[in-house]
Structure formats: structure tokens, C-alpha cells
């Protein structure tokens, strides 16, 4: 019996993944804008603000685990992902309003904590449900790669757009800092609401329980047990992917945390920091199409191996502007870095989807939510450790941001800028050399057959 096609049109695919942009953007400006907003403009003490944002980040990790468990263990009659996504959207919208646009007469630490808690709660449920649903939309490897590739484009576009929003507000309306934060909030509310409706409409009738060939998993979704979860999380391939998630985000975030120091300090171009970041994100969006083609042709594992090696070369390209003293070479360096920004994340998510579908067939239990919550958790661990390591090493080597233009500190900055990400990419390459699992071997055979 032939399984009917579950392919969705390109238009509906774009509509579905668009939600990832503003949802991801909801957390992107928090570290850049909100601490100063609450301390300098709303009058909260620095200690209160520090405790507030530390507590919110701690909750964020807990919410990821909670979302994965509830999505898999408590499916609704109307579908496994759609209801959780809707509930998450509601929490996210209220959280954005309270955190970015709090009524002045109500401003307090408890209100900000409530807003941040709702924002991160909604973010966890929406992002994990959306990723798991993305995986469930198709059983085709090529289609799954395409779904996560387009989703990554939406993520990058959302981050770029939300950071451009206050710049546009300043240029057009001469907005002050507080107004910029409010403009960010309004942009997020509008973006999340519109793309949320479009996303749910685009895949109406295509919940995972309605997909052809998945009735077996749906019927057994209530059998999710701790023992079953443990078996999945102990799977060697799952462990490998989780470690790769941490290393990939360690490299990406570690590099990003030092970009402004590099441009303004080592190269003496503080006025070009924003332009360099713009080139970085534009290259990131454009390059996804290349990684998509490679992913379809060589499979996720093969493309990951290539992208890891070329990422090392991209990191080393910082030596070109140093040697030639060319600003254009510096732009080239950031374009090459940006070209690798989205490769590993979307390929690893696609692999998690592959494993989730394989485990559903093998065990009769759908654990996509838990798998993707594990991936998100690994991303955040890798990102947090990257910033900690980068700044600890810079401090240990004598680098001080206030003296970033001092040539005596350039060696320390360049050393950390190169060593941390290249070390992470080297570890990823070593992991690729480890004995491959049956799923990896099966994918390699599939890719070879396609080439033949």
C-alpha cells in the first residue's frame, strides 16, 4: 500500500515557518536593552535587575524541560502540538506586553518577573511545539531538511529585523531609549500575532495525528513513560547530537560575544560594528539555500561534516584583514562567519526529527517534544558556557573592554577569538570520526543512491 504524500506547498511552508522569526526575536533584545531599561529608565536597583534577569534565565531552563514532557505526555484531543502552541502564544504575548511595555504605575520587580516568566514560558512551549510539529509535517528526509532550513531563515530574519527596529525608530522619529524598547515590544506583539495566525492556518488539518501513516504513533502517544524517555535519551546518536548542539552554539555564541571588541578594538572601526553585524546576518540568511541543497544531496551528517571544516576556515579568515589591512577583507570575514551561522542548527534539528520518527516507529511512542526540548536545552547550555568561558579567558589574559584599542591586548583577544570556536569545531570533527550508528549509515547509503 502506498502512503499518500504529506508534502505541503512552498507557500504554506513559508507561512508555517514564519512564526519562528518573531518568536525567537522576543528573547533576542533582552540582554541588550532591558537591563538598562529597567535600571536607568524605570528606577529599579541594579541588584534587583541583576537578580530579576538571572531568575528569568533559570526559569527558562526549567520551562524547556516542562514543555517537552507535557507536549509528549499530555496531548489534547484536537492535536498534539496545535493546542500547546496556541497556549504558548497567549503566554508569550502577555509576557512581551508586561516586560517590554509595563504600565509605569505598576512597575515593580514582581511584575517584571511575571512578565519575564510568561515570556519564557510561552517561548519554550511555542518554540518546542513548533520544532516538533515541523518534524512531524513530513516523513521525507528532503522535505524535513527544507522545513528546518526555511525555519532557520525565518529565525535569522526575525533577529535581524528586531535589532533594526529601534534604529529605524531613532532615524525616523528620533526616539529615545525608552521609546525604542516600546517600539520593540509593539513590533513583537504584531509580528507574533500575525505570524501565529498564518502559521496555524497554513497547516490546518496537518497536525501530526492526521498525517497518513502516523495513526499508530498517535494511538500510542499516551504510553510515554519515564523508562521510554530514558531509552531515547541514552541512545548514542541522541547523545552525539546533543553534544554537537552544545559545541555548535558554544562556537557561534562565543564568536558573537567578541565581535564588537574585535571590530572596534583590534581593527579600530567602532562605527562599522552595526554594518558588520548586518553583513553577518544577511550572509547567514543567503547561505541557508546552499546548505539546503547540500543537505538534500549529501544528507544531514555529510553536510554537517563539510560545514564544520569550512567554519574553521571562516574563523581563520580574520587573519586576512589583519595581514592586508583591508576593511573589505573584514567584511568578507564576517560574511564567511555568517554563512555558517545557520548551518549546524537547522541540520541538527532535522536530525532530531529523523530520530524522533525512527523512535516512534520502533517504540510506538512519539517523543518529538522531549527530543526537541533536549536540543533547545543543549543550545542554551552551550551558549551560556561560551560567554562565560570567553570572558573568563579574556580577563585572565589581561583584556579589558575599556582598553580594547590598546595594541597590547589585541593578542589576547585574537587568541580567544580563534581558539574557542576552532576548538569547538575541532571537537565536532572528532565526534564525526567516531563509529557511526545504523541511522547514520542508512542515510549515507540513501545519499549515495540518490547520487547514482
Automatic annotation (TrEMBL):
GO biological-process terms attached to the record: carbohydrate transport
Transmembrane segments: 49-71, 83-100, 106-129, 150-169, 181-203, 241-267, 273-292, 304-324, 330-348, 381-399, 411-432
GO cellular component, one term: plasma membrane
Gene3D superfamilies registered for this protein in UniProt: MFS general substrate transporter like domains (1.20.1250.20)
Key word Lyase present: no
Superkingdom classification of source: Bacteria
Name of the protein in question: MFS transporter
Family under the similarity heading: Belongs to the sodium:galactoside symporter (TC 2.A.2) family.
Keywords: Membrane, Transmembrane, Transmembrane helix
The UniProt record lists the keyword Transmembrane helix: yes
Species, as recorded: Glaciimonas soli
Lineage of origin: Bacteria, Pseudomonadati, Pseudomonadota, Betaproteobacteria, Burkholderiales
GO molecular function: symporter activity
